[in-house]
Amino acid sequence: MTKLQEKAVQICDILDTVYPDAVCSLQFEKPYELMIATRLSAQCTDARVNIVTKTLFKQYPTLESFADADLAELEKAVHPCGFYKAKAKSIKEMCQRVRDDFGGVVPDNMDDLLTLPGIGRKTANLLLGDVYGQPSVVTDTHCIRICGRLGLTKRHAPEQVEADLRKVLPPERSGRFCHQIVLFGRDTCTARNPKCHGCPLESFCVDPGFTKNPKKSEKRVDK
């Protein structure tokens, strides 16, 4: 085990203590519902998505109902999440593809998931981890920012950060780690004003100067 892998394990241990029950913040019951909710979450808060999907999943109770939905009505239903035209179009099309090409079952592998409209690696990883229990690394903005601060990666592109984290995180803990990082990023390691004093991961931070000049640090880390 490399020193960076040992560091990653120690970070996972601490996060397990602080966030023992961390799960995906998007609410869903069926695999395709998580697929849809994740598409809606692009440039939208999970809290708002959960409000919208609470009604949306009652209005469209099956995968088939989304696939056959009137596009204008679907646009209206997802309007509060922003970018409603693009999101409604991809939701309808992804459900059609799952129904017609995959027998109504959300694919369980990266290659097939990436063929679905509106699905990128971040969404695919979330589905593989939370639906199928496979090792997954969801590199959202929290993950990229915080893993850079912790020295687990020096890169910024999501796919590159994913590759770096797969090398150091225990596979069986990677999915949970990403959910924990989201919570950690919201309440402690925030983008502009991280609460470094008393941070449980302070000793692992490779750039403790965030509190002195957060704007400068943020520009360097999240560019």
Structural class designation: mainly alpha
| Strand content range | under 5%
CATH evolutionary superfamily of the largest domain: Helix-hairpin-Helix base-excision DNA repair enzymes (C-terminal)
Order of helices and strands: HHHHHHHHHHHH
Shape, per Cα inertia axes: elongated
Q: What's the domain count?
A: 2
Oligomerization status of the protein chains: single chain
By CATH reckoning, the class of the largest domain would read Mainly Alpha
Fold and architecture overview:
The protein has helices at 3-18, 31-40, 46-59, 63-67, 71-78, 84-101, 110-113, 121-130, 141-149, 158-168, 171-187, 214-221. The two termini are 31 Å apart. The protein has two domains: 3-22 and 137-221, Orthogonal Bundle (Endonuclease Iii, domain 2); 31-130, Orthogonal Bundle (Endonuclease III, domain 1). It is mostly helical. The protein is built from twelve helices and no strands. Helix 2 packs antiparallel against helix 6.
